[in-house]
Amino acid sequence: MGSEPRIIPAIYVKPFNKGQKNDYNDAEAIAEAALRPNLTAVFEWSQDQLDLQALHRVRSRLVSRRTATINQVRAFLIEQGIMVRKGLRALKNSFKTILNNAKMRYHSGCARYSSYAMVIGCGWMIGSIQSQKRSRTSTGRKRTAPT
Predict the structure, then answer these.
(1) Predicted TM-score (pTM) above 0.85
(2) Which residues of the chain fall below pLDDT 50?
(3) Which candidate, 21, 73, 114, 133, has a CA 20 to 30 Å from the CA of 107?
């Protein structure tokens, strides 16, 4: 009977907008853009696609927080004169050596207690980062959005 509703991206409507931004001018621009024969419409996302997008956003935020924590631990260690390469694996591999050296310096009286406690705290943070990494899925692959 009537017309088929379509979702039109704002980027395609903007060239047809005249004058100030108000409801009347916006409706006129949408109507003019909708009359174009080769206008591509946007399809509505399914609930599965929205859920998958939310999952990817959460995972991305966790990865960025993990990276920030690793960089912060490296900065703490640099303040103590301990250089470590970038990345979780390099930090994890060198941490046992760093901890043993800090223990020996603390027991010999060459280091302050605060630096020893700081190294112990960094080890605790690395352990929590590793547990986050282990809680990922077994395959570790990204799922694609359903089509």
Answers:
(1) no
(2) 111, 113, 137-138, 147
(3) 73
